[in-house]
Amino acid sequence: MDRPWFPYLCTEVEHWRWETRDEPHYNFWVALSGKGYLSCDEETYPVEPGSFFVFSPRQKISAAHYSGPRITRFSAHFLPTLEGDLLDSVASFPVLGGKVDSLQLLQRQIDVVMRTAISREDDTKLAGLIYQLIQQSCGQTGVTAGVSLDPRVAEAIRIFREDPASVHSMDEIARTLGISRSHFDRAFSKQVGQPPQKFLLNCKMIHARRLLESSNLRVGEIAEALGYKDIYFFSRQFKSSCGLSPMNYRNSFLQD
Prior knowledge:
By secondary structure, the protein is of the alpha+beta class. It has 2 domains: about 10-140, Jelly Rolls (Sandwich), CATH 2.60.120.280; about 150-255, Homeodomain-like (Arc Repressor Mutant, subunit A), CATH 1.10.10.60. Helices cover about 45% and strands about 25% of the residues. It is built from 9 helices and 9 strands. It has helices at about 105-120, 125-140, 150-160, 170-175, 180-190, 195-215, 220-225, 230-240, 245-255, and strands at about 10, 15-20, 25-40, 45, 50-55, 60-80, 80, 85, 95-100. Strands 1, 2, 3, 4, 5, 6 and 9 form a 7-stranded antiparallel beta sheet that branches. Helix 3 (about 150-160) runs parallel beside helix 6. About 30% of the residues are buried.
């Protein structure tokens, strides 16, 4: 590798979303906690502790967290070289949806990388540590073909995420995807870990929180934007999900 960009370790906000495209470098990306979904090359992959990806330059990537603990991730940009020459491509990259064998070992290795980076020790040593981390992760059995979600489940996730107000019934979604409602419920629950109704509600609550945090829309207008006909039902669902009424949530956010 050539000198890597400064590696970083961060815990994202609870309703984090990430998009990137046309980046000129390779990127090693691994989740240490939290759960979400990542889309790349027209495939969608679950993100959970131990999931890792090696992105090639110019790939279009989007990722998001939707429930449970916030996502903590480690990332390091790098440029691959061979005998000192910069490589235009690497046959084994990208690696999408890999899973490390030992999360504890990975975390210990990342701790060493971050201590080295923070102390601003020798760049050659830092590059070697990052190279070793990527090599060990990619060298494990069965990581070159990550398990992506069923395209129909991935499409449902996209609809729920991008426009939850457009979903009027799960029967309609199943018909749109060309499968029976019972098959859709089973496939979604098995691959995502929760029923589609619960996932959709979570997406609505995330959208509501964003609007409460970043807009001047009234609570009734937010409820209507999310497809609710009853503002009181929306408020009850919001409080059950977030622990505060919509107005109290907005006020607490403004106070922070």
